[in-house]
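Lecture notes, continued. The same structure-token format from the folding unit now serves as the input rather than the output. Read the line below as a description of shape only.
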């Protein structure tokens, strides 16, 4: 099988500009496969594969939520944690417009719009995370401390 070439995305440009050392992990993307497929394809624990979710609050202000691949976000807990009435996932078209990425290839790095980034706090305790590099079928690996340095995410406890 031919080796998949790593793309150069806005996320990769941001990581390189910030001096982040990261691994590149292209894999065979499956529509609606999510983190279970990427974890299986890369041979890693799904808990260390971090999904990038684009959501909006009750005023339609967009935000990014980073969550373990094997957990869901409690939108009720997230709304309470950030002091808004409600939070809901964006439609795919809206998420694409806010992030500049296609759903399934959304990275928290190099988004089109500046958005606050919230991170499930237990992600910060992992030794290495795998997160989307800005293209479907492409993850990057890096220590969470580097993600923290570049994005300055706000830790929350909203995983279920």
């Amino acid at each position: 099988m031919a080796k998949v070439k790593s793309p150069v995305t806005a996320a990769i440009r941001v990581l390189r500009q910030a001096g982040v050392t990261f691994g590149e992990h292209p894999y065979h993307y499956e529509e609606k496969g999510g983190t279970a497929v990427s974890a299986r394809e890369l041979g890693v624990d799904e808990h260390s594969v971090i999904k990038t979710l684009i959501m909006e609050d009750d005023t339609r202000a967009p935000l990014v939520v980073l969550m373990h691949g094997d957990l869901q976000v409690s939108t009720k807990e997230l709304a309470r944690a950030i002091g808004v009435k409600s939070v809901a996932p964006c439609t795919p078209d809206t998420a694409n417009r806010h992030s500049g990425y296609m759903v399934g290839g959304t990275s928290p790095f190099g988004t089109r719009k500046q958005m606050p980034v919230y991170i499930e706090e237990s992600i910060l305790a992992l030794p290495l995370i795998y997160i989307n590099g800005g293209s479907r079928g492409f993850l990057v690996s890096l220590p969470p401390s580097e993600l923290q340095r570049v994005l300055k995410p706000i830790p929350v406890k909203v995983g279920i």
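Point for the exam: The chain has a mean pLDDT of 95.
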